[in-house]
Structures are given as structure tokens and as C-alpha cells.
Amino acid sequence: MDNYEYIIEMKHITKRFPRIVANDDVSISIKKGEIYALLGENGAGKTTIMSVLFGMYEPDEGEIYIRGEKVNITSPRQATMLGIGMVQQHFRLISNYTVTENIILGSEPQNKLFGFIPHVDIKKSNAEIAALSEKYGLKVDPLAVISDLNVSTQQRVEILKMLYRDAEILIFDEPTAVLTPQEIEFLLEIIRGLRDSGKTIIIITHKLEEIKAIADRCAILNHGRLIDIKDVKDTSTTELARLMVGHEVSFTVDKEEARPGDTVLKVENLTVCNEQGYKAVDDVSFKIHSGEIFALAGVAGNGQNELADAIAGLKQVRSGKIVLDGLDITGMSIRERIENGMSYIPEDRQKVGLIMGFSLKDNLAVRKYYTDSFSHHTIINDQTFDEHGKRLIDDYDIRSSDGNSTIVRAMSGGNQQKAMIAREIDMNGKLIVFMQPTRGLDVGAISNIHKRIVAERDRGAAILLISLELDEVMNCADTIGVIYDGRINRIAKASELTVNEVGNYMMGVSRSEIQDGRDDMQKEGGEGA
Amino acid sequence: MKKLMVRLLSGEKHQMFRISVFAVVISLIFGAVVLLMISTNPFASYLNLLQGSGLAPKHSYAGMRNMFTDFMSFLDAMTPMIFASLSVMVALKGGLFNIGVSGMMLVSSFCATALVGYSSLSAGIARPLVLITGIVSGALVGAIIGALKFKFNINEVVSSIMLNYIFMYVLTFFINSYYLDPVSRQSINISDSARLTIIDIKAFGLKFDVPLAFILAILAAFIIRFVMNRTTIGYEIKAVGLSPAAANYAGINIRKNILLTMVVSGALAGLAGVTYYCGYVGSIQPGVVPGLGFNAIAVALLGCSDPIGCILASFLITVISKGSIYMSSQQGVEIELADLITAFILIFSACSGFIKEYTDKAERQLKEKNFNEKKGGAQA
To answer: At the topology level of CATH, where does B66-314 sit?
Structure first.
């Protein structure tokens, strides 16, 4: 039966959009039972080619063969019938339905009540889903409602959705972008398990370590063209990065010794409650000086969001004080804080950081539209809006189909992020709060943003960098604070801490325990010598 | 069929406008089918609509009346519709759904009637006062809805629909108690000098009405357009409407903008109220929530939430409602048939999003097909 060499063959696929060629003559072939990675920068055309495979776009040119047969995939439904499943970057789940209801939606098993009234056999489905999740080691409660689940569990639901439809070919679009390090490891485990049970897996990513960790082969795309296909075991991350970006990239951040000046931000005994009334930030105190990068490390959900929102004025403070450059800003409005020199890059760019229905130039002007050169007696000065937008687009290499007047919703996630960062850095603030600034960005863009952060520090700004990526914290920080369960577990100079120590503090291990561990290690080391 | 739709409706330039026109045409075809089913000539019926609105000449006219008389009366009926649809549109831009236009209209017109309508002020003072009273009282009702929204987070749909009935019953009580004309069972007609329409003016050997506020309505549409597109006020309102969380993050005062949006929307609804009850009609009918306030929602949607679109949509809907009386008398069909055609238009314009999707998709498919055929031809 299996008289084909490749389960998927995509030959000479070209897909054009207005003003841009997303895929230019791309050919890839994937063997059954392998983990195949698609690597590329933001906007390199990875998602497009997979959307073509999944039937969301039809290619302008090229042919697709599945199991050796030529197919013409015109809809996701048809792709599903061919055994192709895809987990999108943004999940497609109905938040007030249960896990089971979400999974069976569209192919519900029916029962006939009194022999003729059709209704969904939810009991049978629940049992099926439970069995399915058992079989593949994807722990979920079939009866749980989606809105109560965390991101990583929701992702598992998405995976189950594919498996329920007997998908043989599983496509993951940047599956780890939204996960914490522990969750990533768990997901990679799951993916390996799926391969071992005979599934073919395609994973879209720009994280090199993940590719090294799980992929068998890897295709590198750049600007819509296929650059190379590599056997992962025969290549290095440095080589992959070079192929992907098109030039050498350094993983370390070049920066000189910090020259901290006066205290810019002083947080004193700050307590912030979340919506449930839980003390998400509990009696936190720290200081950031001008010319210093203070990186706050921590596992997701330990109060980072609440802390950042409280400093930026989006959330009310329960008790404590926030002092910016000698000025008590605890009770100030958001705009007053902005005018006093605060910039904030929030974590959720789609809901908070950007107005998705506005054009790019309107979004770039969102902090300044009411100031003198942007408007006069409330009448908007179009020219300033245009010039301001154009300058930031050029300076920060923000790519979009229509420049200034592109609606931000139509831009890629990476470029949305760049736009937001450009706008905030351009404020020349005294304090810049970065919340996960490089989330969802590729290596090239990350190193660019890190350079910008360091440049802002050298300009004399105080930087609060809140990140879930330990590498980012270790690379950028002058001072590291570790937050655990709403409390600062440890603050120290970056040079005084090792990655492992920070990791341990992130898990809530207390300082004395770590100190003991270090002594033991030294002792052992001493004995060994 | 598909090809035709793609040719007519694809492309970005004025696409929503063309789709709206398309929706109207399809609705008229559906209306024609219904008319045929009750064995009425659809062309004659539609001509009657135009004739009734003064856009086409009738066969005969009463003394001192002609097409121009009808047309002026048509503009008189269209004026409140423009204001009302602008009111809905402004609220939509700010992310609010104002169903309370009817209630606002009642309040504003009642205030203007009671305060100015029965006074003996001269026209030069009374008419501006009616307008100002309408604007202020409408804005106040808007402010109530806005305040309920931002103080207690009460959904504006719920509060405005409730207020419609509260105002209707309260004002019915006052009209019945103090201002009732026992013959017409409506409020006593306001004085001619306070009325925003000059009735039966005689000039050029004709008798006609002059809707004084019509120019104001057109002007208002252009002002709203300017404010929405070219000022920071509009920028803030739109930002709050599109994404409250992002607007808040940007330092925009959400509460102020919700209030402002509802105040402006209320002021426009107030103008709709006075131009309707203190202009076109001249008295208030107690116990009735004016349907115009609800039709305005549909008109605003048909007008693609654009002020100029609102004028065009108001024009169309008023042609149908105004001309329906003549159509019904000429063709012997029920007057409700006009409502049916309006309903078709509203249904199809509500589908405009779908029509857009459909044509965009059809366009893509067509392009691909053409491409493949070309390629096939080349190979052969």
C-alpha cells in the first residue's frame, strides 16, 4: 500500500499576495514518520506554505502530492479528509464550550432520541476524548471549560482536535511561542510521542534549539524562497541561524559595563491584587537607576503582568508606592505617567499595545497624537502623522504591504511587535518597561531589539525588562530580580548569578538553600581536587 | 453571474458603497417579485414611489401644487432621518449601540414643545431656541446613558431601550394631562413661528413647505465627517470604539470618551426629534415610540457608518416611506408593502459583509482559473 517515498510532496509552490510574493517556487518533500521543521524569519513564508497545504490558500503555481497522489486542496475540510491537521498560532477554540464540545465540533457523533430526534451523544464523546487523551498522553479533562484552562492545556486540546479527526500529518505553527520553558519541554515530549506512534509532523518555528532538540530534517526559508534543506544532526544552530537570517548572528548581546546613575524608578512595598482578589504582587520593593537594565526573571504567572501594569498605571495599587524620578506616580493617570517619561511595551500587543483596526501611522502616533506638532486645536496634522510613521518604519524596518496606511491587523505578528517597540523607544523616556519584548520574534529581530535596549540604557534610560526567557535575562541584565509567587525572591548583580541559580530562584527555592548548595559544590570540588 | 458580481463588486475602490448599491438593487428585485405575486406592476409601483417623493412628475396635481411641492415635503421628511442616522453612526464609531434615539427624540421634542412651542416669541428667536433645546435635552439623555455605562457598567443597549419606554410613558402622561388636542388626540400643534418647517409658503404661484433644518442636517453630516476623520476628538472616539483596552493603555480617558460619544449622539438624536415633531409633524403623538429612531439604525448600517453614506441611505429609505402613500393609493396595494421593501434592503445590507467575502473569494478563484487556462493554452 505504501508505494510512495514521501507522504507529502509540494512542488514549485508559488503564492503571491498583492505587492508581495509569499512563496517563490518552494519545493519540499516530507517522509512518513519524520519531524520536519520549517525555519525562517518573521514573514519568510513559513505559515503561508503550510496554509497552502492545509487548504486555506490555493497556490498560484505548483502541485501538491499526498501519499503519491496529486491533490488539489481547496479547503481545510478537504485537508482534514486527507488526514492533515493544523494547530494555528492563535488557537481556534470556543472559550465557553467544554473540551469535548470543542473537539467534536463539526463531526459530532449523533444519537437518535426516541429513535428519531437527533442529538449529540455527548457521553460517548466524553469517553472517546478521555480514551484518546489517555492513548497519546495528553492530559486534559474532557468536561473542563476552555476559558478555565491555561494556554498549554488549550494547545493540547487543539492537538486532540486533530487526532480525533484521524490526522496523520500534524502541522504546528509556532507551538512554543506562548509556552513557558517547562511547558515547552512537555510539548516536545508529546510531539516525539506522536512521531513514535507513526504520525508525520511539520513544525513551523524560528527557535533553533527546538529544532536541534526534536526535528529530523529542516527546511530554511528566507523572503519566500527555499534556502536549504538540512539534516538536523549534521548541522549546528549557528549554521542554521546564518542560513535563516542570511548573515552571521551573534547570540550574545554586546554591551559595555553599565554606568548606573541616579535612581529613576523606586518601587516600595508594592502590593497589587489580581481580578480574583489574590495578592499577585506582594510587598515588592526594588530600585532601577538610569543607565541600568533591571531584568525581572520568573515563570509565567508569578505576578509579572500585574507588576508591569501597576507601574504603567493600567492596574490599581493595593498598597505601596511607585516613585518615578523623585515624583510619586502611584495615583497618577496613565497619560500623566507617559508625560513624565514612562514607556511601556505590554505583553498583549493585540489587545493592549495596538489598536488593531487603526492604520500603522495612527498606531505609531498613539502616544503623541494630541501634542503640538501632531495636532493643532484638535485638528490633526496629517503631514506630521505621515512623516512620523515613515521615519519609524524606516528606522525599525517595519514591514507591511501598504506602509503607513496598512491596517495593523493585516500585519505579521513580528512586525506588529516591531511597530510597538519603535513607538515606545521613540518616546525617549526616562523609564522603559519591556514586557516580553521579543516574544514571537526571530533571531535576527531579537538581536536587533536587544541592541536597541542596550542603546537606550546607554542613552541613560532606566530599563525594566520582564522576560520569561532565561537566556534573554542572562544576556541583557545588569541587575537581575527574580519573582516567585508575587514576591521578589532575590535581587543581585547579573555577574553574581549563574543561570542555574536564577532558574532555581524562579522555582521558588530560597536563597539559603541555594547558598548551601553552592557551598556543597565547592566542597565537592575541593575534595575532587 | 459570478463573473458579473466579481466585475461589479471586487476591488477596493468604494467597494462598500458598491456593495450597498448592490444590496439595494437586489432588494428592489425581490420587492418586484412580491409585487408581481399580488399582480401589481412593479415598474409602475416604483415609479409611484418616486412620484410620491417629488422625484418624478405625477399625472395631475391639486391647485398650486406640483412636483416641487412634493419634493420639498420629501426633504422635510428626510431631515430627521439624517440626524437620527448620524446619531446612531457616531455611537457606533465609539463602540456603542444607541437604540435610544426614539426616546431622545421624544424628550427633545417635548422639551422644545413645552418650553418654546406654545410661547409667543418671534420666529427669529423661537426657532433657534427650539434647536438649542433639542440639542441640550437630547445630549442630556445621552449623558444619562453614557454615565450609566461608565459608572455602573450598564450595557447601553439595555439602558437605552428601557429609557425609550420610560420617556414614552412619562411624556404621554404629561401630554395627555396638559397639552392634548382633543380632536386630533395628539399634542396641540406648536406655533408656526416656532416650527422648523415653514408650512404652505406661497411663491412662484405655488404652495410648498420649507424644511429650514435640511441644510443644517447636510452641514452636520460634513461636520461629523470632519470631526471623525480629521480631529483628535474623532481619533480618540474611534480608538475607544475599536479597542477600549488599547485606548486606555494609550492614555486616552475612556470614561470621558464614552460620555462624549453619547452626548454627541444624543444631541444629534435631539435634532432628529425637533426636526421631526417640531418640524415635519408639528405635534407629538402620545403613547408611541417613533419607529424612525429604529429605522435610523438600519440606515446608519446601510450608509456604512459614514456620514455621507448616511445622507444617501436616508434619501433612499425616505423615498420608499414617503412615496409609499402615493403608491398605495395608485396601485391599491397595502402601504405596508413599502415597509417590506425597506425590510429587504435592510436584510441585504446587513449581509454586506458576506457579499464582500463572497466576491473576494470568487475573484480569487476566477483569477486562478484564468491563469490556469492561459497556462493550458500555452502548453497546447
So the answer is: ABC transporter involved in vitamin B12 uptake, BtuC (1.10.3470)
